[in-house]
Amino acid sequence: MTPSNAIFRTLYGLAMAHGDTYDYVPDASAKYPFIYVGEAFNTDTSNSELIGTVSQTIHLYGTRTQRNALDKMAMRIHDDAVKVREAFNYKVRMSAYNDRVVNDNSTATPLLHYVLELEFQYTKRG
């Protein structure tokens, strides 16, 4: 398993504890708020999957009246991610975290879109 997939699967499992979670943007029938575990970027420092960095983006969507619930979801995902030390056959630790809130007018209902960017350092367990 690649490092990015191992971290994706680990974070997806964590996110499920905090709300409806998808690995794709769901259709309009999805209930708000929801979590979409999205893009991942891997940078191998050794060209052999032994050591590197994975950046994983997690998106939270909700209505503007759900700001408090979204904020709590973001905080809980952050707090859980900080504790992650293993992702399948990799040792990992969160090395950076950024979040931003964007107004989303792509639907008839004005939404809030939280974008969480989590960066993990990894080493492959021998």
UniProtKB/TrEMBL annotation:
InterPro entries: Viral_Tail_Comp_sf. This is DUF3168 domain-containing protein.
